Task: inverse folding
C-alpha cells in the first residue's frame, strides 16, 4: 500500500502557482519523498525528489516540513500542459526498490 | 523520448490468445519494472527484474510471465487473455539511484 495521502483533485488557474500537498506521517529516516506525474495515458514522468531540505529544479519546487511528515510540490507558473495526475511516493534512495503508486492528485489547470 | 522503448504501442487481440510485450530499458539501466494500469485505475506493480534475474513480484497473475535477457531488454508474456486484461502496460527502468524512467506504454485491448 502507498504510504502517502493526497487530495483526489485540485484546480488551478493558468499562470498561478499550483501547490500540491502530500502527507507521509509514517516516513522513515532514510526514505525520500519523490514526485511523479502522469499526463493522460502517458508514462509517468519524474519531477523531483528530496530528503529533508527544500529542493528546486527546472520543473518544480519541493518543500518538506521540518518533521518530514508532509510536503508540498509547487509548480510556480502552471500551464495547461501541467494538467495531470501527480503522485507523491516515499522510498529509500538507491537500490532498486519498486515504486508504489497511490491514487495521486488530479490537477486541472484552467485557462 | 524517455530512453525506454516499448513495443508495440497498441495491440488488439481476442480472448484466449497470448501476446508478448517488449521493453528496452534506458542505456545502462539494469533494473526493469512492469506496471499495469487498467481504465481509471492506478498503476499496479507486476514484476521487477535486475540484470536478468527476477527481483520482486507484485500482483501478477499466473497467466502472466516475464523475463529479462542478457542484453537487458525485457518481455512480458500474457496468456489466456481475458477482457479484464485490457489495460495500459508500462515498463520502467532505473540504475538504482534517483528517478525511474518510464516508457510510453503498450495499450492492450482484448476483444
Result:
Amino acid at each position: 500500500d502507498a504510504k502517502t495521502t493526497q487530495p483526489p483533485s485540485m484546480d488551478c488557474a493558468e499562470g498561478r502557482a499550483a501547490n500540491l500537498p502530500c502527507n507521509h506521517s509514517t516516513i522513515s529516516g532514510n526514505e525520500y519523498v519523490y514526485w511523479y506525474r502522469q499526463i493522460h495515458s502517458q508514462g509517468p514522468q519524474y519531477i523531483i525528489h528530496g530528503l529533508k531540505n527544500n529542493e528546486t529544479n527546472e520543473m518544480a519546487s519541493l518543500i518538506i516540513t521540518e518533521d518530514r511528515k508532509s510536503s508540498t510540490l509547487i509548480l510556480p507558473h502552471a500551464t495547461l500542459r501541467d494538467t495531470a495526475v501527480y503522485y507523491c511516493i516515499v522510498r529509500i534512495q538507491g537500490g532498486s526498490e519498486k515504486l508504489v503508486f497511490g491514487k495521486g492528485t488530479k490537477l486541472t489547470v484552467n485557462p | 523520448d524517455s530512453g525506454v522503448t516499448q513495443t508495440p504501442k497498441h495491440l488488439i487481440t481476442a480472448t484466449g490468445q497470448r501476446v508478448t510485450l517488449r521493453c528496452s530499458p534506458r542505456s545502462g539501466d539494469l533494473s526493469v519494472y512492469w506496471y499495469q494500469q487498467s481504465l481509471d485505475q492506478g498503476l499496479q506493480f507486476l514484476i521487477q527484474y535486475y540484470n536478468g534475474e527476477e527481483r520482486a513480484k507484485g500482483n501478477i497473475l499466473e497467466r502472466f510471465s516475464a523475463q529479462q535477457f542478457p542484453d537487458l531488454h525485457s518481455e512480458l508474456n500474457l496468456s489466456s487473455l481475458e477482457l479484464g486484461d485490457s489495460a495500459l502496460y508500462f515498463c520502467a527502468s532505473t540504475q538504482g539511484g534517483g528517478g525511474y524512467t518510464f516508457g510510453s506504454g503498450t495499450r492492450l485491448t482484448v476483444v
Chain B has a mean pLDDT of 93. The CA atoms of residues 21 and 87 of chain B lie 12 Å apart.
